[in-house]
Amino acid sequence: QVELAESGGGLAPPGGSLRLSCAAPKSVRSIYTMGWYRQAPGKQREQVAAVTAGNTDYADSVKGRFTISRDYTENTVDLQMNSLKPEDTAVYYCHVRVVVHGELMQSFDYWGQGTQVTVSS
Predict the structure, then answer these.
(1) List of residues 6+ apart from 72 with CB closer than 8 A
(2) Phi and psi of 18, rounded to 5°?
(3) Buried b or exposed e, range 51-65, using 16+ CB within 10 angstroms
(4) Would the pLDDT of 76 be above 90?
(5) CA distances (Å), 27 to each of 23, 24, 75, in order?
(6) Maximum Cα interatomic distance, the chain, rounded to a whole number of Å
(7) Is residue 25 scored above 90 in pLDDT?
(8) Are the C-beta atoms of residues 30 and 46 closer than 8 Å to each other?
(9) Contact assessment for residue 83 and residue 65, using Cβ atoms and an 8 Å cutoff
(10) What is the pLDDT of residues 108-121, one digit of tens each?
């Protein structure tokens, strides 16, 4: 299995900032997507932000507040979270999609263990 190392979660006040980081092993090749999902209690898991083929995507709820960045050399992805709101409170999961092109295309998804983000005064 591929283990994704997550860090940066914690407690922040409303309006504060946190930076989440995720690292895939450097031995992992053909990473197509790196991003972050989150799940709040009683809610479905939702995609927060992702980098795919050099492009970024954001959930409407975080646009203008969160910034995702990927380091292709280090196999890492960061999520800078600014102007945090209480509704951002959730467990955040790093997500990596590997796509291998051989005789047939194969896709594999890997998930971090989750890191808690709590926004509260």
Answers:
(1) none
(2) -140, 155
(3) beeeeeebeeebeee
(4) yes
(5) 11, 8, 9
(6) 54
(7) yes
(8) no
(9) yes
(10) 999 999 999 999 99
C-alpha dist (Å) from residue 99 to 43, 65, 111, 114: 29, 29, 15, 23
Phi, psi dihedral angles at 111 (to 5 degrees): -130, 145
d(C-alpha 85, C-alpha 88), whole Å: 5
DSSP string, the chain: ----EEE--EEE-TT--EEEEEE--TT---EEEEEEEEE-TTS--EEEEEEETTEEEE-TTTTTTEEEEEETTTTEEEEEE-S--GGG-EEEEEEEEEEEESSSEEEEEEE---EEEEE--
Q: What angle do CA 9, 55, 87 make, to 5 degrees?
A: 35
Name residue, tokens 């194969």.
106
